[in-house]
Amino acid sequence: MKDSKYEAVNLNEVVESQSNMTPIQKGKFYEMMKRINNLFVGKKGKWKGPKVSIELKSGAKLVQS
Q: Cα–Cα–Cα angle for 28, 31, 37, nearest 5°?
């Protein structure tokens, strides 16, 4: 796969952009996001589990998402 540009997420901006949440919900959402913040630091990770083998259909194209 091709490299992508990874950027850290601004948690305050993400939380404040949630116009459908009440202030209490935003506070809880922010606390949850802080706990899992390592998922949004802007760096690629490395798979630490067992080796995985994926068979692609003939002519399949890889998609990064």
A: 135
Rounded Cα distance, 47 and 53, in Å: 13
Distance between CA atoms of residues 5 and 14, nearest Å: 19
Give pLDDT tens digits for 4-59: 667 777 889 999 999 999 999 999 999 998 888 777 666 677 888 999 888 888 99
Domain residue extents for the chain? 1-43
Q: Which SS3 state, helix, strand or coil, does residue 37 take?
A: helix
Residues 6+ apart with CB under 8 A from 56: 62
Tokens standing for 2?
A: 């091709």
